[in-house]
Design goal:
This protein is of the alpha/beta class. The protein folds into two domains: 2-109, no CATH class; 111-142, no CATH class. It is 27% helix and 23% strand. The strands form two sheets. It has a four-stranded parallel sheet with strand order 1-3-2-4. It has a two-stranded antiparallel ribbon with strand order 5-6. The chain is globular.
């Protein structure tokens, strides 16, 4: 079961007991469409999540917030410790720092960890015993 509210704080929204609190960012461009599909999958999987939706991206930049991240978003991130986000635009030109770079630097996210496992026998594979973790440093563009 998924509970989601848009402008209410985590203390004000209806919460599912025992669920994990998550900061949710719909993004812009193709982001909202991707998030809708993601939320359908999470709901179908029975994920017990309480979402707090916040704004990041083009609209926030255009409102005058130079980082593209609203103060409410930073508060929610600090409270939940978890972000579910999709593609988010950064304005072109003008020396604006990428929102993703800002998140990585501010939150100390210096590695992108990608586990790779085979799904054999459910998915045919030439490498049925594959169990690899790829770690990519994430400090470029800083």
């Amino acid at each position: 079961m998924i509970a989601m509210t848009e402008s209410k704080s985590l203390n004000e929204q209806q919460q599912l007991p025992g669920a994990v609190d998550v900061t949710l960012v719909r993004g812009d461009g193709i982001g909202p469409e991707i998030m809708d599909a993601t939320l359908k999958v999470l709901k179908a999987a029975g994920a017990r999540l309480n979402f707090h939706e916040v704004s990041m991206g083009l609209d926030v930049y255009q409102s005058g917030e130079s980082s593209g991240i609203s103060p409410e978003a930073w508060d929610s991130i600090a409270k939940t410790g978890l972000i579910l986000k999709v593609p988010i635009s950064t304005p072109l030109g003008g020396g604006v720092k990428s929102l993703n770079v800002t998140l990585r630097k501010t939150l100390g996210l210096y590695a992108n960890v990608r586990p790779c496992n085979s799904f054999t026998p459910f998915v045919k594979s030439h490498f049925p015993q594959m169990d690899v973790v790829i770690i990519r440093e994430n400090e470029e563009d800083t």
